[in-house]
Amino acid sequence: MEKVIDCFDGDYAFLSNFYEHPIEMNGVTYKTAEHAFQAMKATTKADHDLIVNADTPGRAKRLGKKIQLRSDWEDIKYIIMQDILRVKFASPELGQMLLATGDATLIEGNDWHDNLWGNCTCPKCADKVGKNWLGNILMGVRQDLIQLSP
């Protein structure tokens, strides 16, 4: 029977972009992967820094919804997410935790109607199947780690 991890909390909270683990990219340290992702949307240093300095990943996400988006955002957002997650899981500790998920299917299950990055399981979305971009990218990063392992 196929193992599925469809809740990124508890033992699997580290899979969430809200997991508190600093990420350094382009000389900037972000508090979480969510901070990094939302900040990458910015067209101005002021907006970028506002998101970087948000006190929580939830606040960073809300700010990211209010700023002017890069004109190429829709074309690059998946690549940006992949880059962020590669950096996050390059941490030996987190990399080992991701590898420990084995061959489990990773699904960002949620109840907030996110059928792009995950799969919403609320009654309203019951007839929809999410695209699960976050889970798919995580499984790709895991596969990369497997290939890099000695």
Task: Walk me through the structure.
The protein is mainly alpha-helical. 42% of the residues lie in helices and 9% in strands. The protein has 6 helices and 6 strands; from the N terminus they run E-E-E-H-H-H-H-H-E-E-E-H. The protein has helices at 33-39, 45-52, 57-64, 73-88, 92-99, 133-148, and strands spanning 4-5, 23-25, 28-30, 105-106, 109-110, 119-120. A two-stranded parallel sheet has the order 1-4. The chain has a two-stranded antiparallel sheet with strand order 2-3. The chain has a two-stranded parallel ribbon with strand order 5-6. A hairpin with a 2-residue loop joins strand 2 (23-25) and strand 3 (28-30). Helix 1 (33-39) runs parallel beside helix 3 (57-64), helix 2 packs antiparallel against helix 3 and helix 4 (73-88) packs across helix 6. It starts with a strand and ends with a helix. The relative contact order is 0.15. The mean pLDDT is 96.
Structure summary, number of beta strands: 6
Order of helices and strands: EEEHHHHHEEEH
Query: What about the largest sheet?
Result: 2 strands, parallel
Whole-number radius of gyration?
A: 15 Å
End-to-end separation in angstroms reads 28 Å
**Main sheet: strand order:** 1-4
Number of helices: 6
- Enumerate the spans where pLDDT stays under 50 for 5 or more consecutive residues: none
* Averaged pLDDT: 96
Strand content: 5-15%
Please identify the structural class as seen in this structure: mainly alpha
* Principal-axes shape call: globular
The helical percent reads 40-55%
